[in-house]
Amino acid sequence: MQLVIIAGGKGTRLGLRDVPKPMVEIDAKPLLEHQINLAKRCGIDEVFILSGHLAEVIVDYFGDGSAWGVKIHHVVEPYPLGTAGSLNLLEGKLKDRFLVFYGDVVMDFDVDRFIDFDAQYDSVGTTIVHPNDHPYDSDLVEMDNDGKVTAFLPKPHPEGVVYQNLVNAAVYIFSTSIFDYIEEGISQDFGKDILPKVVEQGGFLMAYATPEYIKDMGTKDRFEHVSQDFVSGKVARLNFHNSRPAIFLDRDGVINKDMDVKPSVEAFELLEGVAGAIAKINKSDYLSVVVTNQPMIAKGVVSAEDVEATHKKLETLLGNEGAFVNKIYYCPHHPERGWEGEIAELKIDCDCRKPKAGMLFKAQKDLNIDLSKSWMIGDRETDLKAGKNAGCQTILVGDIIGQSEFADFRCKNLKEATELILKDRR
């Protein structure tokens, strides 16, 4: 597979004068060099660098790429063409399919896994998406349960919008059919212009969600932050090649006020201190994963669409306060029959309903979680037993009276539980 790096950034907000933004050094090497080394690790040996501002700095440094064991082609845009407009300069030179990086993004992710995901679909392209702590001012992606992109929500968002916290990470694999959507000779951007056009015209785009490290460094504050993460090893540590611990969270009674027998979007309300607690998880190496039983789907009281709409509100409320969850899993089943309007095919003794650990095992597979270093936080014995069945440590939260057979610790709420877990692990 070929790699295209879009490297036309000026770095004005970083205060750069003599070097283009992609050549700013992180840990004594230009960011572009880190990106090329990442691609080379998965066998990519042909790179197209699309540059503009101070292009000669990039050309002089990398030459033909032989010093890095790759073949580099330099293409300089005649005037600013935007991320998509500059790609159009390569029409006819790329094979189907190719990888695209933005030259101002600090990243370390399992490129092979991304390529394998993309290869399953005959799509126009696949974009990497992930949650972040400021979705309210980010370009967002909507996708269905199969990972197909259904819409783009560019910023600024309408007041009161409820969203999935899925941010376009600006890492793509495209088919050469992407050129059918790019006009020649004008400035165009993938996130704002081209990808929404693909979806609007019925094109097939996939979204690949990953918790790995992919962040732009476009401002001085962000640059300092990502530089620290790189030097500390966090950038590399979050690669899917490395297993990570997770903090599994029950939903009702732990994250939000219990909605009893009639859950609804309107009734959903975060408990006090929850957003701050989850934000602390986000800053650690722990993944934050929700695992919740939703038997009212099987009983016919609510639909799967109702539950997913509630989860969008959960993501929105957390995002508005600078927090996110990496993944939400829910069990729609219930084994007992006898409810009017129940869904017969969901009335089964499944492997995912807590106290069974199916949702935790699914998360382990999806996110490469080290269950032996993970925690389950819940307000019921069924939550804790599920954690124990998966090999996790457990914390019981709430004002429950009496002994708990499966709780390793007891805390008043999620804030206190999170502080217990993270106090010696910063």
Shape: globular
Largest sheet: 7 strands, mixed
Mean pLDDT: 94
Helix residue percentage: 25-40%
- Care to count the β-strands? 19
Class computed from helices, strands and strand pairing: alpha/beta
Strand neighbour order, sheet with most strands: 5-4-1-6-11-8-12
Number of helices: 12
**Roughly what fraction of the amino acids lie in strands?**
15-25%
Distance between the termini: 39 Å
CATH fold call of the largest domain: Spore Coat Polysaccharide Biosynthesis Protein SpsA, Chain A
The CATH homology group name of the largest domain:
Spore Coat Polysaccharide Biosynthesis Protein SpsA, Chain A
How many domains would you count in the coordinates? 2
Radius of gyration, rounded? Answer: 23 Å
Low-confidence spans: none
Named at the architecture level, the CATH assignment of the largest domain is Alpha-Beta Complex
